[in-house]
## 1
Amino acid sequence: MKRAAYRAETLSPFDLQGTEEHLSAMAAQGWRLESIGRFFWKYRPAEPAAVHYAVTAPPAAGEDGDLGDRLYFEELCAAAGWEKVTDWAALQIYANGAENPVPLETDEPLRLETIHQSMRRTYLRDRRNQLLCYGGLLLLTLGQVFRFPRAHFLSALGLALPLFCLLSLLGEAYAIAGYFRWLRRSRRRVEEGGVPAPVSRHYRVLSRLSGILMVLLFLAQLGTLVPLSRPSGWTALVAVLSAVCVVVFWLLDGALKRRGASREIRAAAGLLLVVLCLLPAGFEGFRPFEFLDEAGAPPSYVWNGENWDLEPQPLPLTVEELTGEDWPHVRRRTVSQGRTPFASETSYSEAASREDGTYAYLSCAVLDAPNAWVCRRILEDMLKPSQFFLFRPEEPGPWGAEEVYRRFYRSGEPCSEWIVFWPGRIVTLYAEELELTPERQAVAGAGLAPEEEPS
């Protein structure tokens, strides 16, 4: 026995002829429409048959919620052989298995205006709300790009987010314009004694693309929450949270719908649920999948109670190169912080120790941005003062760089962190238990400076 089938249909509520023809074709294949949910249409298996369908707008409920006129309308339809199948937004779908059924609608002008009023309360209202939502989101994301250029120019998803918002905005505007074009053509046909105009099939393709774009937009928003410094563990975390969010949202939405909650209340509850599901990811130190990050660690050995690299990987600058001394025990890491056509950043870190217990730590993040405007915007973003720190310029000569800045506490005490700028490259250098004398600054600058292009 076949089970029920669920399909994500792309039919618009005002596509009367297309919906009727589609449902008749499904019935001929042995599938009868049973219900229409938020995302999927449910079909039940049945014997293939020739079934006629009709989409209509029933009488509206009274101001006190009275459904008397609607129930009377359903009784009249049943008497004419039309069985109600399901509700669809403010519309209803009826089926009739007779070979030549009595037409469900005889007054096409009244039918068209009734459907138009229904679309104003449902379809057009939803499109308008989404248009405003995408417009606000587009302005917000563009503002974020200019407020935090480093984070966005390093994130492909962050850069894609404004594009997704713009395409979604244009899609909603096209849907609204498409509806009014259909309404204008339908009124003209009805005035000539015909039926409402059909909707072009390419409109269904655009609806499908709109759904795909909405999913990509959601994934892009989730992706901007994933710290690229720990991609494996955090990707798994986001996947789990997304799955949990979808399941709980489906259960919550069903419970609210059974209790008669409005669409606005259900949408607000869904948004609150998304925020609650993603809230733990905002806490620093929250590492539920830390073991995944350590799975790809290089071979190591234990000395003095710590793990050290058995075969240290090469780095642009090492503690040994910086000091000119031998450090037998080292632990090195290389992590990509993001890569887009506009910028790429890789962080390198090394912990080094010697037999006498001397310890040193060195880390540097090399950010390459070939475009001069993008590189300058990122540098300005990195130099923004915070509540506790600020950057002060230093003499760039020893580094062989164009500009050098050092981080200071607000109290005036210097930190062991520098930002070194060359055209097209920004390096953030942090040294612990290592004094960066001018000689060592020259060594660091020589190792981290961009390679000169051959003339």
## 2
Amino acid sequence: MKQTIIVLIACVVAVIGCTGKHADGVKDRSMTDSASVVDSTLQIAVAQPVRKVSYEEQQGAFLYNKYCAVCHGQEGKGDGFNAFNLDPRPRDLSDSTYMRALSDDQIVQTVNGGGRSVNKSPLMPAYGSTLNRQQIRDVSSYVRTFASQDR
């Protein structure tokens, strides 16, 4: 984030440093328009802090994309490319109301034992023999991010 702000500040300084005039003294409107765009971009970048992603979430993202996204989708909405083949359809993991009702242990159990282990769809496979305990916790941590607003 620090590097992004430095780059944006350098861009603003470069644009502001330009006079916006041609050699013949005629003011170039595009230069002032560019300066205002860069300035507003800088304000947006500074106003919206970037959420730091934990190591566990990074690992969870990798594993989720490898094992879960085919059904649950890249954004956890239950719209993966295999979802249309499934009845019932995969759970929308971005549903914040549903996800708040689940404990971390319930999510871990679902990933570990599959849907059948928590009285949900038997079509969701169990990953307890594919992933180790830490990997299952990493996936569970990442799954939580779908329902959060600061993702």
## 3
Amino acid sequence: MAHLLRWLAVVIVAVCTMRAGVNSLERTDPTPAMVPTDSLVSASDSGCAECPIVQLPMLYAGIKREGRPSESHPSDGRYEAHLPLVYAQVESRYMVAIPLLLKGGTAPLIVGEPPAPVTSSASPEPETVGEPEMVADVFIRAEGDKLMLQGKPFYFLGVNSSQLLQPYFPDCEIEPQIKYLAETKGVNVVRIWFFPGHDMERLERVLDLGKKYGIYYIVTLQNYHYYKTQGWFAHRYITEDLPHVRETVTRFRDRPEILMWELMNEPSCGPENGSQECTDYMYKWAKAVSTEIKTLDPNHLISVGTTLGGWTMHEQENYERMHALETVDVVSIHRRVGKTSKAEMRVAEKLNKPVFVGEAYYMAYNDDCWPINGEVLGERARYIAKDLEWSFAHGMDGYLLWEHTSGEIVTTGGDSQWICDAYVYMENDPTYQVFQEYLHKFLSGQVVDSQKVGHDDD
């Protein structure tokens, strides 16, 4: 009996040691110093006994109202506050704001532990049909610091539509949105989010609509927000990212409606304060996944999906070295309208690669989703016009607004929801007229991006 107890003690010690080693890979307490409890909703009643308890900040308030907000009637609609569907919030852009973006101040981090770490380093093999090959010149390519299509420079203007592929967004609303954007004659690219678990058939239909209406897409394959930490970039992506990337890229690699693949929406080392160790893992992740995509699909461009260079020296160095990868074709920036982001644009100049603004944001709406005042939409449009002039004169290749929304929809669950936040663009926004005029300049060859960014203060 004593012999048996001694062996049992050895086993217990070994197991505890192994658990301690695994847990040390992650931050064990990502809870921020202050979390406003009145702005959180718990997902602990999801019915999954193994799932972590996650609290989601309700920063993206759904509004049920009678009447559509407008510039001329900014405050006369009747409405009632209405909590949005929790599952519709899970991948909302403003659930967690990176402090770098300065959108509404510092937002709380997610409370709760991330999923258990991956213990296997094996990388599942993709199911492929045939080998990829370079095909005719129907894809947009990078030649030096220019985007090219069939021997001519390609510039783009457009919007984000993060809700388009979400499960709650109704199928019947997809084509009207794409059709409207195309008919503005100022939008030729839409950035969409296609994350693990999303519907492949829906993405197929969206690409078909792009072919029908002349719209290209930037397809973003992952989202940073909610639980990704250093451990995710170190090893979890092997099972949580690569299978999705392989399946998606292999299936859609022949679609010229895709302008580029984007590795992730706003990757960051926020919880680790931009540490050297975390940025090293992020670099290795970007290299591994972009190499995987290029191997499967040599025809499409790749961007990382970054915001800005970052606050720390390690983040700034990593911003450049990720974009210096041979498998990354285009430099990505997210910034507020009018912020020139010269440091990031100088990275593009140094690397001789195209550069685009993946999200340009400008606050125009209040919490009830009415314009802040009767002049703000026109003021925003004029400010964006100035930003376009400077940006494209200094080497910008594309510029996307955050973000277009249909406003009120009836979700797949049958609920009436108002999709809105402080930065959205709805139908008939005057900015679309600005885009139409500027896209005409592109097509008529009036845009000359010959000026250097310069080294004065950003």
## 4
Amino acid sequence: MEFQKAYDKAAAICARQEQCVSMVRDKLVKWEVEEADLAKILKRLVEEQFIDEQRYTGFYVRDKARFNRWGKTKITWQLRRKGIAPEMIQEALASIPMEEYDNNLLDLLRQKKRQLKLDDPYKRKASLMRFAASRGFGLDEIIRALDVVGLD
């Protein structure tokens, strides 16, 4: 694909939805854009603020914490896979309101607890812990939340 067509197409995608460099790079590679043009397109998109990884990271963290109810660990790993700098990730994670974050974990555990049909409290606790860990919450957070939710 030629330079201008690839740039226009990438800019349109970035204008519709926040993108990070790695996502746009993957699209350009898929469109078989030459390596030299690929670098120029990415540089131009960043300069013209079609791509802003700080902005992308902030939106990603807020959306995943609020709507997907992911924990910080899962969000961090997903952003690392996208090549986002650790400092940017930590800064964005700090913007999550702790009360909302804790309430998400409590709500998830309460919902899961209602679904469980286990009689043994140890198995019920283990199941809840595995579930919360799979959602990306840390062990300390899970233990505190389980104390609030209870296992009866």
